[in-house]
């Protein structure tokens, strides 16, 4: 126990005694890398460093709404080759969020990921905000006919751009590209959730994209935040003060922790950090059961 920073021990105690009961989670591509999907911005392994062959006018063009309208092929190719070829499954970190729900403490799960693994982990519809949409469903951009991910994957085996069966329209996944409108109620919901939140857990995101990143900066003072990211301390998390003081090392898992009075930063692989966190909470067995069932 004395190997844990005081703020982390306090968070664990408060979850145990029921005084933390509104946890909000915010995740990004880093929680799906263990499922074989690259993230976007990690140097060399991230998607944005692997797109030279696409001759894009700018790095993020592939996820840009206006660019997609002119040239939809690169997006479909990336979705086919990088997102779904390996039939990804939810990771331990996805199941940890489901476990928070089962333990009755999850208020909301915000995911920026379009892979749909949060749904596949069983996180309930009313707890889940897919802020950038999902690949799990698709629709015709002209007649709005609805299609599924398996249908789209089948199409992409033989066509670079899937076309509607009922009209000449392009069938596009239900994802929100840069420059397109986010869900109407997103910012209202974020405001309500952040107002009620006792603990924010941020995992595997660079926090580079608005508006979900503002969940971090709009937290009230004296509320707890846990950040989990593999980046080292040279790569500071935006909106988070450097946590000075002791560095707590967990060499078995290649994880280290820094903490201030309300913020805990866990540096390491998400799944390794989740192993530690569930251990401290006494939830390791429940997590294994959840994954196995
Ligand atoms: P990024 O690629 O920007 O950030 C992923 C973060 O996860 C980085 O900070 C990595 O250090 C960290 N990371 C990677 N693997 C990890 C692991 N195994 N364990 C712990 N941390 C790990 O991805 P996002 O923050 O999700 O938008 O990007 C946000 C948005 O930008 C995406 O939703 C997408 C993109 O452009 C759209 O497509 C609209």
UniProtKB/TrEMBL annotation:
Q: Does the record's keyword annotation contain Zinc?
A: yes
Q: Which PANTHER family match?
A: NAD-DEPENDENT PROTEIN DEACYLASE SIRTUIN-5, MITOCHONDRIAL-RELATED
Give the residue range of the signal peptide.
none
- Record's SUPFAM superfamilies? DHS-like NAD/FAD-binding domain (SSF52467)
Write down what this protein is called. Answer: NAD-dependent deacetylase
Q: Where does Zn(2+) bind?
A: 140, 143, 164, 167
Which intervals hold domain Deacetylase sirtuin-type?
A: 1-284
Q: Which organism is it from?
A: Nesidiocoris tenuis
- List the InterPro entries: DHS-like_NAD/FAD-binding_dom (IPR029035), NAD-dep_sirtuin_deacylases (IPR050134), Sirtuin (IPR003000), Sirtuin_cat_small_dom_sf (IPR026591), Ssirtuin_cat_dom (IPR026590)
User: Active site annotated at which positions?
Assistant: 132
Origin: domain of life: Eukaryota
Q: Which UniProt keywords apply?
A: Metal-binding, NAD, Transferase, Zinc
